[in-house]
């Protein structure tokens, strides 16, 4: 039995960032920690504390274990390490649009890679994670940190990472109900009007440019989306009212976080503003009968990393 045990920390993520559907994401300062030990004996032992502890499977369906096996297979070591001991300390809310499945995938890949002496690069891990998840918008920021813009060309993933030239606060309203990504995908149309596509291309380009330049003036209208939010609004009571309340309280803008139901407001780092925005979002949700917790987060700039190696 290999006695090495490793701890990995992976940030939660918010995908789409308004107009950047399935392409723009960010990492935020809420984390899942994973302790991983590979064993030569078959079988996997899994323990979980925190978010989703009663809902996450502790058998072969566990996505961390599946990701560990995926990487070992790629390395030709699946017959060497047939089992694992996994412990998860979860702070990222489950099925809320903060990338909980992406953190699990990235944690499994990053931890297993560290235990086999980092055979694969971060870019290769991104490719593996995208192959498992199906798209890169959540796994890319979980790996790299910061804001990420990702494209897939004939199956090959490319990712550009940027740290904006401004300090942003991310105020997240977390409703007390889950929403599966599958259900949120099912409401989307197969085709969209040309004007809606143009709306998103322009705003996504301006979002990235404004972040690169640190120009807050151009962030005030960029988060409006026409490709997915209008169709998902019926799944989240009061969504547009919460957006309006956030802007009225001083946020630059607000959007659906991933597939939802979390809503995220983007603020400049001024304490009184983020407190007011959080309260306004909470109250707007309450008017629609939804109880929501508020998380006041920052941009994570490090991405997935090893906490210890012993």
Automatic annotation (TrEMBL):
Which InterPro entries does the entry mention?
GHMP_kinase_C_dom, GHMP_kinase_C_sf, GHMP_kinase_N_dom, GHMP_knse_ATP-bd_CS, Homoserine_kinase, Ribosomal_Su5_D2-typ_SF, Ribsml_uS5_D2-typ_fold_subgr
* Predominant cellular place of this UniProt entry's protein: cytoplasm
One Pfam family, short name: GHMP_kinases_N
- Please name the GO terms of the biological process aspect recorded for this protein, alphabetically: threonine biosynthetic process
Q: Which gene encodes it?
A: thrB
Q: What does the record give as the function of this protein?
A: Catalyzes the ATP-dependent phosphorylation of L-homoserine to L-homoserine phosphate.
Q: Which UniProt keywords apply?
A: Amino-acid biosynthesis, ATP-binding, Cytoplasm, Kinase, Nucleotide-binding, Threonine biosynthesis, Transferase
Entry binding sites for ATP:
93-103
Enumerate the subcellular locations listed in this protein's record, separating them with semicolons: Cytoplasm
Q: What class of enzyme is it?
A: transferase
Name of this protein: Homoserine kinase
EC identifiers of the protein: 2.7.1.39
Q: Which HAMAP family match?
A: Homoser_kinase
Query: Tell me, what is one Gene Ontology molecular-function annotation carried by this entry?
Result: ATP binding
For this protein, the record's NCBIfam families field holds: PRK01212.1-4 (NF002288), thrB (TIGR00191)
What reaction is this protein's catalytic activity? Answer: L-homoserine + ATP = O-phospho-L-homoserine + ADP + H(+)
Residue intervals of the GHMP kinase C-terminal domain: 217-285
Q: Which GO terms describe its cellular component?
A: cytoplasm
Where is each GHMP kinase N-terminal domain found?
A: 62-146
Q: Is the keyword Transferase assigned to this protein?
A: yes
């Amino acid at each position: 039995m290999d006695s090495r045990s490793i701890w990995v920390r992976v940030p939660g993520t918010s995908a789409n960032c308004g107009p950047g559907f399935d392409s723009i994401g960010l990492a935020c300062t809420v984390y899942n920690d994973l302790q991983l030990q590979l064993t030569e004996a078959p079988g996997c032992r899994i323990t979980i504390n925190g978010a989703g502890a009663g809902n996450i499977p502790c058998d072969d369906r566990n996505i961390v274990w599946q990701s560990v096996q995926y990487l070992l297979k790629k390395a030709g070591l699946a017959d060497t390490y047939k089992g694992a001991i996994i412990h998860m300390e979860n702070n990222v809310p489950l099925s809320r649009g903060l990338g909980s499945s992406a953190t699990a995938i990235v944690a499994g890949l990053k931890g297993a890679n560290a235990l086999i002496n980092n055979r694969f690069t971060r870019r290769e891990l991104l490719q593996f994670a995208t192959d498992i998840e199906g798209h890169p918008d959540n796994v890319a920021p979980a790996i790299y940190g910061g804001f990420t813009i990702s494209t897939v060309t004939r199956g090959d993933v490319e990712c550009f990472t940027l740290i904006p030239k401004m300090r942003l606060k991310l105020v997240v309203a977390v409703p007390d109900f889950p929403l599966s990504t599958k259900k949120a995908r099912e409401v989307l149309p197969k085709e969209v009007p040309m004007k809606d596509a143009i709306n998103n291309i322009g705003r996504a380009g301006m979002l990235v440019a404004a972040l690169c330049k640190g120009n807050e003036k151009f962030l005030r209208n960029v988060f409006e989306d026409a490709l997915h939010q209008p169709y998902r609004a019926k799944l989240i009571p009061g969504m547009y009212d919460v957006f309006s309340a956030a802007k009225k309280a001083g946020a630059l803008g607000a959007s659906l976080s991933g597939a939802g139901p979390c809503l995220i407001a983007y603020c400049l780092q001024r304490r009184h503003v983020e407190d007011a925005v959080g309260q306004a979002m909470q109250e707007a949700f309450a008017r629609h009968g939804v109880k929501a917790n508020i998380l006041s987060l920052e941009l994570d700039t490090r991405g997935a990393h090893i906490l210890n190696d012993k």
